[in-house]
Amino acid sequence: MAYRIALNFEDGATRFIDCNAGETVLDAAFRQKVNLPMDCSDGVCGTCKCRCEAGAYDLGDDYIDEALTADEAGEGLVLTCQMQVSSDCVIAVPVPASACKVRPAEYGGTVTHVDLVSDGTIILNLRPDDPAALAFLPGQYVNLTVPGTGETRSYSFSSKPGADEASFLIRNVPGGRMSEWLTTRAEPGARMTFVGPQGSFFLRDVDRPTVLLAGGTGLAPILSMLEVLADEADEVDQPIHLIYGVSRDGDIVETDRIAALAARLPTMSWEVCVSDPQSAQPLKGHVTDFLTDEHLNAGECDIYLCGPPPMVEAVRVFLRERGVDPRHFHYEKFAPTETAITAVAA
Ligand code: FES
Prior knowledge:
Bound molecules: FE2/S2 (inorganic) cluster
CATH topology of the largest domain: Rossmann fold
Number of strands: 19
Strand content: 25-35%
CATH superfamily of the largest domain: Nucleotide-binding domain of ferredoxin-NADP reductase (FNR) module
Helix content: 10-25%
Number of helices: 7
Structural class: alpha/beta
């Protein structure tokens, strides 16, 4: 039996490998030409130390304390030269991908649908040339090339891994190269290329109440996470609460899809808020206005936040002022222009 291992490198690049039952992660990586950090290969030096972010595994008892202490093991640190997995896993590798001879994967796809669903939002669907080869973690992004240019833009998948079509929720930026191409020239059948996956903003195991905060098109990676959670609804026994915030009523998109996800995921609740005081929506304000003590659960919660930098900062300040230190706080910022994405886990 083989399991899927996502190796998430320090620079956010991610490479998927297969690992057979009884095989160490280090051996599996080498077999697939990924040179993970190592020295002794025998549980002595600690050079291969990584962090397991999700999944089940066994480290055996053939390594020494100088290589990995009991406290480190208890925190999820692992020695890949000893680690044998018993489920799919996500492993954070504390070096850049290039240090392990991992090059970014390139993909091609065909546009199947492009739609300006609001003044500020474009939905793009692509059919990858080889859907089975396109692996990513829910929440991650890729760098799409603007056709006819050498320029790339970073966009998170709003679709789940393994879907026949990859979808994206793209902010329509006036004067932006990608926005201009999508709104004036893109049509079904057009070819696009992209590189990735990328980013440390991805869904981990849901072990405690989870709060999802989405600002504008920051909804995209959250939708991808919810798609996966809805597929696994039988195993999700923790409350999942989404607060989706936008500036104006016209910016609200994908609510039918959110409602359909909530119908499949019994522990999920959600609300939309609009910061425009003239909004016709019942909830007027910012996402922090609707974050309650119940959601925050005295800090025993995981928070995933994707939005523009001011929103990320507002949530950080809100948590600090409320004295709430969430167990995990994963956030991703996207800049107001068509530029890069920054993902952080704390
Ligand atoms: Fe030395 Fe794993 S390579 S402990």
